[in-house]
Amino acid sequence: MPSVLAYHRPQSLDEAQKLASEKNAVLIGGGTLVIPQVLANPSSETEIIDLQSVGLAGITSESEGSETSIKIGAMSRLSDLINNDKIPHLLQELCSKELPSTLRTQATIGGTIAERSSESILLSGFLALNAEIQIHEKNWIPLNEYLQSSSPTGIITAIKFSSPSHDSNSCFHTVGRTPMDVPIVSAVGYSESKGKFQVSLTGVAEVPTLITAADELANLNPQGDFRGSSDYRKHLASVLYKRVSEELQA
Amino acid sequence: MKISFSLNEQQIETEIELHETLLQLLRQRGMISVRYGSDSGETGAGAVLIDGKLTSTDCMLAAQIDGHDVITVEWFNKPELHPIQAAFVATGAMQSGYSTPAMILGTWELLNRNPNPTEHEVRDMLSGILDRETAYVKPVEAVMRAAALMRGETNEPFGPVYLPPLTDGKNPVDVSPTDHGPDASPAVPRVVPSKDVPDMAVVGKPEVKVDAVRLVKGNPAFTDDFEERGQLIAKVLRSPHAHANIIDIDDTKAVALPGVHAVIHYKNTPRVKYASGGQSWPNPHPHDQVSFDNKVRHVGDRVAAVAAETKEIAQAALDLIKVEYEILPYVLDEIETMEPDSPVIHDEADTEEIYDADRNIVLRIEAERGDVEKGAIEADHVFEDTFKVHQVQQVPIEPHISVAWLDSDERLVVRTATQVPFHVRRMLAPLIGRDIKDVRVIKPRIGGGFGAKQEMLIEDIVAHLAIATRRPVKLELDRSEEFIASRSRHPQTLTFTTGVEDSGKLVSQKLRLIGNTGPYGTHGQTVQTVAGLRGLTSYNAENKKFDCDVVYTNTPVAGAYRGYGAPQAEFALEAHMEDIAHSLGKDPIEFKRQNWVKVGDELNIAPHLGERAVDPEDIDEYPKITSNGIEECIAQGKRSIKWHRKDDPEWVSPKDQPNIRRGLGFAFCMHGTAIPFLDMGGCSIKINDDGSFNMLVGATDLGTGADTVLGQIAAEVLGVPLSDIQVYSSDTDVTPFDTGAYASSTTYISGTAAKLAAEKVRERIKERAAKMLNIKEPCSIELRDRKAIAPDGSSVSIEDIAMEAFHLEDHEQIMGTASYVSPECPAPFAAQFAEIEMDIDTGQVTIIKLVMAVDCGVAINPVTASGQVEGGMLQALGYAHCEEYAFDETGKMINDSLGPYKIYRADEMPDFEVFLVQTMEDSGPFGAKAVAEIPKDGVAPAIRNAIINATGVAINEIPFTPERVWQKIRKSEI
Ligand SMILES: Cc1cc2nc3c(=O)[nH]c(=O)nc-3n(C[C@H](O)[C@H](O)[C@H](O)COP(=O)(O)OP(=O)(O)OC[C@H]3O[C@@H](n4cnc5c(N)ncnc54)[C@H](O)[C@@H]3O)c2cc1C
Ligand code: FES
User: In the β-sheet with B911-917, what is the strand arrangement from edge to edge?
Assistant: First the structure.
């Protein structure tokens, strides 16, 4: 009957990987999404694999030539990014926007990535920055590839991206019911150098979506809900895309 | 599983259950400052410091904490208050105080990291702790003051700023654009004193709340903070269907599950009809509910309930109950439900007095004064507008919770978070086949109610289960149940038809209203009646008519929600009046002023509406307006919002932001104070050896500060400081009767009872003092500074009088009991202003500032009164802007959690400014009128009218969510 059949706290990635392959095993980062879901179902018999001790927390930077790459361990909490000056201001703001004070300290970057939420503005920010992620025992892959794949598995260990250079520019615009509402649609824009930019949108597809040219907007076919119909979301996508692109090119 | 962690710097090793959350573990270990508000981290009421960081505990397993450090507010608790706690107390930063411990922990963490935070940083820290009461205004102030204290600075004492009046109290004035209001923090109440109000010692002063210390320390206060030995946990099986007959229930497997003690449903509970609204006897018909029915009428309706050893077992037992449903068609819309082919929601034979069950019409309400049809014919212009208002929830952070048990005399005791303990006792007794004398209801502190707890909502379930199991049984609703299975605001369709002369004078006003009560009547009659009353008393017109159908639908049940029909009606009325003014080319405030009620004007339709409505032929004299401070309110409000900007095209359409429009809006607000001849409060006061007093009141403090205000009233009469009054409320075995906390009645009704009881005590004290001082005329004696003072200056302390009475001569317990019911219902008035900014490309409206200037008579405590206005405006803002119930195609609510159902958080609030404009209301205690509900009335119409200022577009439906607004504005040229 129980909702939670076992709680494991593996000490290494290999151990975690092994445990995760068991029936009914569920990984948790912070558990902010998993735990309420598991407890709501008294007969789920879940085995919780808590990743807090496998050594995935931490933010590091590595420089190669003129380029600096920033790597964030999957078990870093959203609040760790806000308090770390290696992290670009854009991502810090998006962390604040993603979750309120009491949840940022618990929710992890790994959980946020694995959740692949269409509404995650933080994920959208990483996407705009051309971030790559690493899955245990696999090579780095572009975040976009991970988001577009049908049902990815494995333990996410880290996300990395090139530290934005001085020539780069970024911004975001959102529309929601209130200023800090989960945006109905948001657009995060990033321009590596003048003239070149891309925009990542939330609320218009099943996962955050990267747009590199305005004509791609026509292909969007968002699902509507009570906060915004499909047509309205499409309208917002083009308004916000335009705003972000104009701001980046200004 | 065994875990080890540090709790408040003590290393703990403990066995835990795998499914236990950290919140459960901490509460079970006595850390009851950690409070339940949700299961998924939405409310922050249970946030603690984990490894020094503010973190929710409800979406975390206890197992995850192994090896970590936890700090709760209990860690701070010494006899003296920590500076942070002291700052929260001093600023009145808590109302119910349910989430205050989390705020204090967050403050401590923030100030450790950053001793000099900006307001933005403070608000960001508070962003995860939802508050429905303070609007975060005073908590932000408390954090800023705590920061100063901890930096070693001293703060000025917190209290109101007193402003000179801008008007003579009667006539309007022009406010100069260069004139500025006070330069004080927004948390500081701005009080405009009236020369008619005498200075007093305790009344009118910003006294600290009597329960402040208990709340900032997180001491046991709320229903769940007290545990009975052997307590079982109850869970309710709820309908997944919007409308269905229950063909059969098979509970065999659930009953057989080890740890299950009882399963109750329609087959094994008596079918006793009742109406759940917490109202005076006799409860309005129809009595259309039973504890468990063989029909369900909304998603979330009760099907069965289980009592078991643990929540997990109870939950599992629910899954084992087999229910066979016959699914029926359903209807959610209040107009559609009256169509001939709509499903009949109450087809049972045993509900009496449904007006037209086949058309789902619960009842019709009609009232008329004069002749509106004739009036309309005679008018130069007739205007008609229809408005639609929606369903929203009260969202108290403490959900409904009740515990019932049989005491040693086998009487049934219910400890419950209710606004109406005495109504609950009376209504519960017949459902469980007991006499009233065999039922005792205890109301501890409540973590917010706002009307949702003016209901006998779950007490019958725990009572049935306690009787069935002979064990204490606790039931606490979860957040989803709060939405789908408690109560909400009535959706309505309202049509105003108004006849106006060329001069602008109203000659007739008719309100046709269809109110959606959901599948049960409860407050259906009274809420729509108040909507009629509020919709039709603000403005003078000789001919008025209210024509209303209250209808059943299959939405979650509507009930009482702070404002009680007024926010709906005043949205429609203030929108309609605004539109008439624009159509006639008149200034809206001028047009409204020409018609709004002034001192001496009759409330001409009021007596014909309400629970005790009278026919026109049976009435000699109509109630009149006795005090009205609206002109001063308008002047203060205009100055604060910088009203002149609305006519400046460059401000409205800023050149550098082509997609932005700005606007200012106004709404005139009028409310009532208590229900005349119906709302009753009792109070009893007795003296103690040391000259202090115990005061017992039936009134329920929901966080409103009622205990404090009632204490201040008694202290003023008795010539003692507030700290000499110990206020206790309420327990049906111990405290005097009170109808309960609703209808803005507590200060006025229970306050008058407190004043009368204190006066009785004062008379006895004076008589004894006269004897002791050898004075002939006791009435010449004054009570002041804890002394009875004779005209010649001789005095005796109240303590000595008490000692003499108890121990020396003519032994007696000096005490007084009084009750009060009012023949009057004096109206508070207010001017609500809103400043908005909108994005015309997306429809997103941003609220920049809300200003309310309110005439609530004499504010007994300006800090708690301004807190009431702030909290009320916050809820009204949600109503206007972002909160709404959304349903899927099966009639199920799809946004039954906080987030999808959006309530405002600290880091996105508009600026608030509150003015308390004093008038002397002679019928109220020390001049008081009500303040609790009027802030619910004006925000929606003020925002709507600001949208008109910004774009010229009138929107007759709330909330003003982006797509709704965009759909409207895209069709017009801006
Ligand atoms: C009240 C509330 C409000 C929220 N608001 C928003 C919002 O505004 N916008 C938004 O987009 N989201 C929102 N969320 C979701 C939020 O983003 C997630 O809760 C959070 O980011 C997930 O982090 P976590 O570490 O707690 O995840 P967990 O709950 O621990 O895990 C989430 C998922 O990720 C998997 N997982 C975790 N770590 C790993 C890993 N290293 N490798 C592989 N899989 C892993 C888990 O198995 C699970 O499937 C909200 C959640 C709550 C509770
Ligand atoms: S609590 Fe009712 S008027 Fe204040």
Answer: B161-162, B190-192, B911-917, B845-855, B829-839, B660-670
Is the backbone of residue B40 left (phi > 0), alpha (psi -120 to 50) or beta?
Answer: alpha
The interaxial angle of helices B524-537 and B566-583, nearest 10 deg, is 30
Q: What is the pLDDT of residues B64-80, one digit of tens each?
A: 999 999 999 999 999 99
Q: How far apart are CA A159 and CA A143, in angstroms?
A: 8
Locate all alpha helices (DSSP H) within B389-432, ordered by sequence. Answer: 421-431
The shortest C-alpha distance from B908 to chain A (Å) reads 6
Domain of residue A95: give its range.
59-162
pLDDT tens track for A221-241: 999 999 999 999 999 999 999
- Strand-pairing partners, residue B402, are B416, B475
Helix (H) or strand (E) segment spanning residue B264: strand B260-265
Residues 20-39 of A with CB under 8 A from B: 28, 30-33, 35-36, 39
- CB within 8 Å of B938: residues ≥ 6 apart: B570, B574, B667, B668, B669, B830, B831, B832, B852, B876
CA B153 to chain A, closest CA, distance in angstroms equals 27
Helix (H) or strand (E) holding B681: strand B680-687
Q: Which residues of chain A neighbour B118 with C-beta distances below 8 Å?
A: none
CATH of segment(s) B562-596+625-669+826-873+909-974? 3.30.365.10
Same fold: B562-596+625-669+826-873+909-974 with B680-821: yes
* Ligand 2: centre distance to CA B822 (Å): 15
Q: How do strand A169-175 and strand A185-193 relate by DSSP bridges?
A: antiparallel
Q: Is B364 exposed, middle or buried (0-12, 13-18, 19+ CB in 10 A)?
A: exposed
What's the number of domains chain A is made of? 3
Share the mean pLDDT of chain B: 95
Using the predicted structure, report yes or no on whether residue B743 has a pLDDT greater than 70. no
Residue the block writes with tokens 């925009």: A199
Q: Mean pLDDT, to the nearest integer, of B687-705?
A: 89
> Are B659 and B841 within 8 A, CB to CB?
yes
3-state secondary structure string, B699-768?
Answer: CCCCCCCHHHHHHHHHHHHHCCCHHHEEEECCECCCCCCECCCCCCCHHHHHHHHHHHHHHHHHHHHHHH
The distance of A3 to chain B (nearest Cα, Å) reads 7
Residue B374 phi/psi, 5° resolution?
-65, -45
Rounded to whole angstroms, the Cα distance separating B177 from B831 reads 18
Cβ contacts (< 8 Å) between A52 and chain B: which residues? 64
Close Cβ partners of B262 (under 8 Å, ≥ 6 residues apart): B306, B307, B465, B468, B469
Residue A115 exposed, middle or buried by CB count within 10 Å (0-12, 13-18, 19+): middle
Residue of chain B minimizing CA distance to A43: B316
Q: Three-class SS of residue B488?
A: strand
**Predicted-complex ipTM score:** 0.97
Q: Which residues line ligand 1 (CB under 6 A)?
A: A 26-34, 51, 74, 98-99, 103, 106-108, 110-112, 114-115, 117, 119-120, 155-156, 182; B 40-42, 59, 899
B842 CB neighbours in chain A (<8 A) are 175, 235-236, 239-240
Contacts of B21 in chain A (CB under 8 A): 35, 39
Residue B747 backbone phi and psi in degrees, to 5: -60, -45
Residue B834 identity: A
The answer to whether the beta carbons of residues B321 and B249 sit under 8 Å apart is: yes
* Sign of torsion over alpha carbons B167, B194, B857, B160: positive
The CATH number given to B2-76 is 3.10.20.30
Both A63 and A8 in one domain: the answer is no
Gap from CA of B886 to ligand 1 centroid (Å): 24
- Burial (CB count <10 Å: 0-12, 13-18, 19+), residue B152: exposed
Which amino acid is it at B128? G
CATH T-level assignment (fold) for domain B680-821: Aldehyde Oxidoreductase; domain 4 (3.30.365)
